[in-house]
Design brief:
Two copies of one chain form a homodimer. Chain A has 332 residues and is α/β, with parallel strands linked by helices. Helices cover 39% and strands 22% of the residues of chain A. Chain A has ten helices and 14 strands. In chain A, the strands form two sheets. Chain A has an eight-stranded mixed sheet with strand order 8-9-10-7-11-12-13-14. The first copy, chain A, has a six-stranded parallel sheet with strand order 3-2-1-4-5-6, with helices on both faces. The N and C termini of chain A lie far apart (40 Å). Chains A, B: One of its GO terms (molecular function) is nucleotide binding.
Amino acid sequence: MIRYGTIGTNKITNEFIEAATISRKWELTAVYADDAKDAQAFADQQSASTAFSDLNTFLQSDGLEAVFIASSPIRHFEQIKRAIQADKHVIVQPPAVTNPTEFAAIEQLLADHPDVRFFEAVYPLHMPNFENVAATLATMPAIQGATFVAMRDLPGYDQVLAGQQPDGFTLASAGGALQIVGLYPLYAALRLFGRPKKGSYFATAIQTGVDGLGAIFLEYPKFDVTLHIGITTDSFMPSEIYGLHEKIVIDNITELKLINHYDVDKQNNLLNTITYANRLTGEALAIGNVLENLNDPEQQKQYASWLQLARDVHTTLFHLRSMVGIKFPTDR
Amino acid sequence: MIRYGTIGTNKITNEFIEAATISRKWELTAVYADDAKDAQAFADQQSASTAFSDLNTFLQSDGLEAVFIASSPIRHFEQIKRAIQADKHVIVQPPAVTNPTEFAAIEQLLADHPDVRFFEAVYPLHMPNFENVAATLATMPAIQGATFVAMRDLPGYDQVLAGQQPDGFTLASAGGALQIVGLYPLYAALRLFGRPKKGSYFATAIQTGVDGLGAIFLEYPKFDVTLHIGITTDSFMPSEIYGLHEKIVIDNITELKLINHYDVDKQNNLLNTITYANRLTGEALAIGNVLENLNDPEQQKQYASWLQLARDVHTTLFHLRSMVGIKFPTDR
């Protein structure tokens, strides 16, 4: 069992704790929150764990091996740094960082702490249905392109319209469509098709200066991939991968509940296999596997590919963000 | 009744003749085809009309007032010119021309023949459901953008893959996704949102050198519009217009059979009214109205707006095509 602690007391932390329990690979030993009362309330809610409101004490707590970070993204970098310096594995909710400079600093720290593993926890990529998509894609003799859609009508936008500055919708919180939702279809595209040779971003800014709605165009040698992303409106468009006379149609690129392969005979083959009731189960299992088998070459290869993918995604995200002139306080 | 003749003997010509009959505004008097036998066979099929295989004789035929042109697009320009010079109104199947130079030449000819009217027959814009979309859009207090999809898996692409050069899929025929299908969502966007301040096109070329699949980004002052177009694969994506917490969802931007307005309360209001069994009925009625009421200021205004829209669309089409370096033999 991997003894882990959590930073953050929100819904996703709850979900990860549940998934970790389901996976039988993780044991929650400590929870951290800025406020001691919040920490204790969360610890009470999650039985058998100790509450901390001092980060150092939390990181030095008895037998702690790994931390799951689901705080506000603007705080991730400092918390990741502190965790790595304390030689704890880090699992962090996307976006792990706000720019590639932070990512490079983390990689430098990892080089100095070779026993530590660092994971950006992109749950859709660890879903069985994602593997289904990848496996079906591999059988397609020709790929003509893809359109991935991640658009959400988030309540934060109403707050923005009311003159407020909600987390995720401001420059100060390193928010915006690219960071909050765009990262997921970008991960999917880079995982399935590799690093694009060129990326372009067309976005509409909201009052706070961040991107509210946009389209990303990724150019590959033989085809193009378009990503529709947004935090100010939703969409009924599915995500699609185009073959020759065949298509993979995905209801939702981040939840992957319904995957259909329309084959060359226009027959519809439902690709669903397992859908975990808790959507983070796949990631709890996969990351757990790496941490339980640190000397297994297969798991090492897996881990290296995830780290490379995270590096590529954050480099691309920053490039796209720079194209539309959005600067975060964390950018140097 | 407007006495008209047809150039072309294909499916769309049949459809227009049927629509013209339904509208009770048109009387077919002459049909033209390059081959005398084809012309006669088509004339026999459409009762009460005379067959011609010489364009001049056809254009001078008894009482002819207007011509409907549905030949191969590469031949439109010459046929339009000849018709205008013979003082016949022209209704032409899109794309009317292959570039803005041809369009400007037609406008010059129209100036020299002030009694002649020229129509690019963009049937979706004359459908009652299109007016429904426009009217609903006008009630939306905020517009965040739109995505229009016109992607078709056309049999011509298989011929291309087999080494052939089918019409519509070659540079010689002024083909490609922009010309064959892209024009329709572009018309819809410019009709609903006006002329964009900037347009960009990302396309994948097929073996013949034309664009097979692509995405167009149209930038407006306050929002962006994305068009997905293609002649090598289809798509299940609907077309959508994004308001604030509301959306108009269109099953198909060229056929407009199912229009839904998802309002701010997330209630779905079906916007369908009349759908003509023959999809060209609306255009036969609307164009017929203009030609029957040449001195009516309202109809004159209508006509002028259509001509302006056609000019804008062909200017934009050419700009987008130039961006991806596609040159037609007709480009100077």
